[in-house]
Design a protein that fits this description.
The chain has 275 residues and is an all-alpha fold. The protein contains 9 helices and no strands.
């Protein structure tokens, strides 16, 4: 098959690839903006911990990046614009390299990574039910129910860092020394009425006593155990994402080279006619 035959195939494959990527970016940004507007208040991002504990900001940033990549790839493919195609495949290549580097660093510095993850979870716990962090509150409840966990490194005792569940005598809250309902063993049931007081006073209990009422595994540990248990799913997902990115890089690179080769052939034939 000649270059003339393969070029349209590569062009429209790349367009479809990027159109889906572009739609994905729009959906993520839409969800993130909706979550941000629904808060009815503004929050500031002062550190990377603030970033990772703010799901709406994460969605907006990731969605914006996917939107830009998809848009440049779509327009570059349709207009056969090598500048946009080069921007697209170089950015995608950069993201791929950063992902590989992040994976290697997490493997090498696994203990430090776990500590950073615990810090992020602890910061999230402090912001639980705070005005402006409603989406984070829902995310924490969802995570604790899904992974059957409670708190961070110190498990259910981490909830004393939250002003509503703080265990100090000066705390006037009725939930003092308790934990959220999502820590309770029955929080994953399909019951229409949830007992939101099921975690009452559980911080005063020993681990053996608390085992009968709430989850006593920290969420970072539970997540890592889940990853280890389902490592094959994680592996397949990583391979699929890598294949998706490499496919986009190769298609954009091949199309760009074919466009440039076509220009060179045209210029060569023009000079030959003039001579």
């Amino acid at each position: 098959m000649s270059h003339q035959d393969t070029r349209p195939v590569v062009k429209y494959l790349l367009f479809v690839f990027n159109f889906l990527f572009w739609l994905f970016g729009i959906v993520l940004m839409g969800i993130g903006i909706w979550a941000l507007v629904e808060r009815e208040s503004e929050t500031s991002i002062n550190s990377y911990v603030d970033f990772f504990t703010d799901p709406s900001i994460v969605l907006i940033v990731v969605g914006a990046l996917a939107f830009i990549l998809g848009f440049s790839g779509c327009v570059g493919a349709l207009r056969e614009n090598c500048v946009l195609l080069t921007i697209f495949y170089l950015l995608l290549l950069l993201i791929f390299v950063l992902e590989v580097m992040a994976g290697v660093l997490v493997f090498i510095y696994s203990d430090e990574f776990e500590q950073e993850a615990n810090d992020i979870v602890e910061t999230s716990i402090m912001r639980y039910r705070q005005p402006g962090y409603e989406d984070l509150t829902n995310f924490i409840d969802f995570s604790q129910r899904t992974f059957e966990c409670c708190g961070a490194a110190s498990t259910y005792n981490d909830w004393t860092k939250n002003k509503y569940f703080n265990c100090t005598p000066s705390n006037p809250s009725l939930e003092r020394c308790g934990v959220p309902y999502s820590c309770c063993l029955n929080s994953n049931t399909e019951e229409e009425i949830i007992n939101t007081q099921c975690g009452y006073n559980t911080q005063r209990l020993s681990v053996v006593e608390a085992n009968d009422k709430i989850y006593t595994v920290g969420c970072v540990e539970a997540l890592l155990d889940e990853i280890k248990t389902k490592s094959y799913i994680v592996g397949v997902t990583v391979i699929m994402v890598a294949a998706f990115q490499i496919t986009g890089i190769v298609l954009a690179y091949v199309l760009c080279r074919e466009i440039e080769n076509e220009k060179e052939r045209y210029e060569h034939s023009s000079r030959a006619r003039l001579n």
